[in-house]
Structures are given as structure tokens and as C-alpha cells.
């Protein structure tokens, strides 16, 4: 059963069926130019340890701060960026920005925190992916153990390629997460073989946990299966206390969602981190 989560309704830039080629080209060029003009921004959505309430990591999510259209969400430009391949330099920029930011926070003395960066299938199939990431790690002095790459199930369809590439990424010391888990085809056997560290349960299942017993069963099963395989599970799209309680009752330890925080600009997240560090120091006195 396919679930419509609205990810693909990029109406602002919807290609006109009659002149689609031209509009696509225009958008590709605009993205290229926006990259040069530094119009993209990375937002960070906290990931929370349910038991402690601590922010244990963030997911880096790109937005386009367009001079006239305002803040444009990724659903409106990522699909075309993927189609045209411009996602490759854009994705590298996001990765670099997220690593630099992580390093800045570390140097400011904030508690170590992981950052998860979405990898596009276009990036995944580039022969120089591993070298590119290695280079970014070196340049930004990012500690690889705090970097997680989010891939999707579809990227692992070519098993031999996936084993090779994911193996090399793991050798760099970074972590791997399967995003939107449950929406694609996954061979459970390979989850182990690929050395996946974490599964991110797709928002479409979490959304209906309280109303759809099938979805509740699916979520419970994914959590139990991940546990058996020794893989962490994180639930995304948690919006309500009920959803959180259900996840807790199923022994899911990590969540990401509007119930806690929306994706935030770096400065806002930093304020949040500073405040919670302060509260901790005070309560330890
Ligand atoms: P994703 O990787 O599955 O990211 C999670 C999306 O769910 C984000 O949307 C986030 O804002 C949203 N979300 C989180 N919690 C909640 C919640 O409680 N309720 C609801 N309704 N939504 C929630 P966003 O930022 O609009 O990104 C959409 C998608 O765009 C991402 O889905 C990812 O596939 C893609 N994307 C974003 N940034 C990048 C990037 O740098 N590179 C690539 N390749 N894709 C990206
Ligand atoms: Mg993601
Ligand atoms: Mg995704
Ligand atoms: Mg996701």
C-alpha cells in the first residue's frame, strides 16, 4: 500500500507539461545559481532520546532561501535537483555545511552530537562518493563517528554495489541509517550485511499509529526486528504525546518530530543547546 505523504507536490516549480523541458532547465540553472549565491540554508531537526529528553543528534534538512519567493521547502526543488543531477553539488554543499557546523558547536564546548545527512541516489552512484566524503571530513575536521548518512532502501537494490560502497563508508568510521524505512523493499538479511547502524521508521506509519492497527503493528514489528538485529530504531514524524507513549511502550528509544521540535536554523538550535546545557549545569550544583 502506497501512502501519500505529500512529498511530491512541488507546485511552485511544477513543470508545465507543454514547456516542461524549458522550465526544468530554468530551474536547474536557478539551483546552480542559487548555490553560487549561497541562497541555500541548512536547518537542523533535533533527535531526542525518549528516556532522558536529551538532544542526541540532528538531521540536516536543506531549504532554499529565495530572494523573492522566500523559504522554499525541499519537496519543491529536490525532485528536480535529483532528476537533473544538480543534487550532487547541492548534496555535497549540505554535507560540508553540516560537518562545519557540527565542528563549530564542538569547539564552542557543546556536548558531542551526531548529524544525519540525506544522501541522494545520484550521489550514491557516483564513483568518487567515498573520496568526496573523505575530503569533506578532512577539510572540516569532522569526527566521522558523529556523522550519519541517510540512505533509502532503493539504493541498496544493487546488492554488490551497496556492499562495496557502504563497506567503504563504514571504513571511514561514519554511521549509516536507512531513511523512510518500511516504504521500500528491504531484504532483512542485507541489513546486517550492509552494517546498517540505524533504521528510521517512516513518518507515514507513525502518523496513523493511534488510528490504524496495521500501522501500529508494522511499527511495533520494525522496532522489535531492529532490536533483534542489533540495529537502532528511530521514529520520525512524531507529533503527539499518544504517538510518543506508544513508541515508548514498544521500546523505541529515539524520536524526531514536531512534538519536540521543527527543523530549526542553526542559530536557534544553538540557543536551545546552550539553554539545556545551562539547565544541566545548574541542576548538577
Ligand atoms: P526526510 O529525509 O524523510 O526528512 C524528514 C522530513 O519530515 C522533513 O521534511 C521534516 O521537516 C519532516 N518532519 C519531521 N518531523 C515531522 C513531523 O512531526 N510532522 C511532519 N508532518 N513532518 C515532519 P523536509 O525538511 O521538508 O524534507 C523533505 C525531504 O526532502 C526529506 O525527507 C528528504 O528526503 C529531502 N531532503 C531534505 N534535505 C535534503 C538534502 O540535503 N539532500 C537530499 N538528498 N534530500 C533532502
Ligand atoms: Mg532523512
Ligand atoms: Mg527521505
Ligand atoms: Mg524520512
From TrEMBL:
Coiled coil: none
A Gene Ontology BP annotation from the UniProt entry: regulation of DNA-templated transcription
EAL domain: residues covered: 24-277
Descriptive protein name: EAL domain-containing protein
Species of origin: Cohnella ginsengisoli
Full-length numbering of the shown residues: 267 to 551 of 551
Amino acid at each position: 500500500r502506497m501512502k501519500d505523504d505529500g512529498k511530491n507536490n512541488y507546485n511552485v516549480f511544477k513543470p508545465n507539461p507543454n514547456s516542461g523541458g524549458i522550465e526544468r532547465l530554468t530551474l536547474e540553472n536557478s539551483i546552480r545559481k542559487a548555490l553560487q549565491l549561497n541562497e541555500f540554508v541548512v536547518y537542523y531537526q533535533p533527535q531526542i532520546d525518549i528516556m532522558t529528553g536529551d538532544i542526541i543528534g540532528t538531521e540536516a534538512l536543506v531549504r532554499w532561501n529565495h530572494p523573492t519567493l522566500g523559504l522554499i521547502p525541499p519537496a519543491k526543488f529536490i525532485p528536480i535537483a535529483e532528476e537533473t543531477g544538480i543534487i550532487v553539488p547541492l548534496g555535497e554543499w549540505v554535507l560540508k555545511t553540516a560537518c562545519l557546523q557540527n565542528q563549530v558547536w564542538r569547539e564552542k564546548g557543546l556536548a558531542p552530537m551526531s548529524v544525519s545527512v540525506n544522501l541522494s541516489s545520484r550521489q550514491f552512484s557516483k564513483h568518487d562518493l567515498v573520496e568526496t566524503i573523505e575530503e569533506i571530513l578532512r577539510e572540516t575536521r569532522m569526527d566521522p563517528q558523529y556523522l550519519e548518512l541517510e540512505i533509502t532502501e532503493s539504493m541498496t537494490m544493487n546488492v554488490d554495489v551497496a556492499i562495496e560502497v557502504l563497506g567503504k563508508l563504514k571504513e571511514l568510521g561514519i554511521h549509516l541509517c536507512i531513511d523512510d524505512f518500511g516504504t521500500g523493499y528491504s531484504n532483512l538479511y542485507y541489513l546486517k550485511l550492509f552494517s546498517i547502524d540505524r533504521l528510521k521508521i517512516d513518518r507515514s506509519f507513525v502518523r496513523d499509529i493511534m488510528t490504524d492497527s496495521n500501522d501500529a503493528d508494522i511499527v511495533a514489528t520494525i522496532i522489535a526486528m531492529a532490536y533483534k538485529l542489533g540495529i537502532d530504531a528511530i521514529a520520525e514524524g512524531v507529533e503527539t504525546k499518544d504517538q510518543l507513549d506508544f513508541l515508548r511502550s514498544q521500546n523505541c528509544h529515539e524520536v524526531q518530530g514536531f512534538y519536540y521540535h521543527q527543523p530549526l536554523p542553526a542559530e536557534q538550535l544553538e540557543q536551545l543547546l546552550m539553554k539545556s546545557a545551562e539547565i544541566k549545569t545548574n541542576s548538577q550544583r
